[in-house]
């Protein structure tokens, strides 16, 4: 592929008008630092067939010409702060070849304990901090040690 074709494809995928707008964007720095993002967005994404999107707007692709375990992939909607927990269970099963049913074409039976999937807050400031954690905003109002005093019976 010629350099002009590569640059044209790069501008098309990133929705930029010119090369200077692309170079000045945060996406460029993210793609340079995170090679996986650049590979998925620039090469794998356009080369595959779009199978569907989930309720987080992640896009799922498939290409049968690739090696077996590399045929299915996801391109996350949030390219700066993507999280693997934004992949719902039905898409996770399809991505990892647990089943071959595309969630866009098949309605999975939900178990009685089903809860809507959500993105975990681990690693963020909203994560769970137990009582006594240094990061818990509430002050400690409990004693770590309380001396035992025996009952005084006369």
UniProtKB/TrEMBL annotation:
Any single Pfam family the record assigns to this protein: NDUFA12
InterPro entries membership: NDUFA12
Subcellular localization, as worded in the UniProt entry: Mitochondrion inner membrane
Keywords assigned by UniProt, alphabetized: Electron transport, Membrane, Mitochondrion, Mitochondrion inner membrane, Respiratory chain, Transport
GO annotation, cellular component aspect: mitochondrial inner membrane; respiratory chain complex I
Protein known as: NADH dehydrogenase [ubiquinone] 1 alpha subcomplex subunit 12
Positions in coiled-coil regions: none
Family recorded in the similarity comment: Belongs to the complex I NDUFA12 subunit family.
Key word Chloroplast present: no
PANTHER family xrefs: NADH DEHYDROGENASE [UBIQUINONE] 1 ALPHA SUBCOMPLEX SUBUNIT 12, NADH-UBIQUINONE OXIDOREDUCTASE SUBUNIT B17.2
Membrane topology value: Peripheral membrane protein
GO process terms (BP): response to oxidative stress
Residues of the signal peptide: none
Keyword check for Transmembrane helix: no
Function: Accessory subunit of the mitochondrial membrane respiratory chain NADH dehydrogenase (Complex I), that is believed not to be involved in catalysis. Complex I functions in the transfer of electrons from NADH to the respiratory chain. The immediate electron acceptor for the enzyme is believed to be ubiquinone.
Organism placement in taxonomy: Eukaryota, Viridiplantae, Chlorophyta, core chlorophytes, Chlorophyceae
Organism: Astrephomene gubernaculifera
């Amino acid at each position: 592929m010629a350099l002009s074709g590569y640059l044209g494809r790069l501008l098309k995928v990133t929705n930029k008008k010119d090369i200077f707008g692309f170079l000045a964007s945060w996406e460029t720095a993210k793609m340079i630092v995170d090679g996986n993002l650049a590979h998925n967005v620039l090469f794998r994404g356009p080369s595959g067939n779009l199978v569907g999107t989930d309720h987080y707007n992640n896009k799922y692709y498939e290409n049968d010409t690739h090696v077996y375990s590399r045929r299915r992939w996801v391109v996350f909607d949030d390219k700066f702060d993507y999280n693997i927990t934004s992949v719902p269970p039905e898409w996770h099963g399809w991505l990892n070849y647990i089943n071959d049913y595309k969630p866009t074409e098949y309605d999975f039976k939900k178990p009685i304990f089903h809860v809507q999937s959500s993105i975990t807050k681990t690693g963020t400031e909203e994560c769970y901090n137990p009582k006594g954690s240094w990061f818990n905003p509430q002050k400690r109002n409990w004693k770590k040690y309380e001396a035992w005093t025996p009952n005084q019976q006369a």
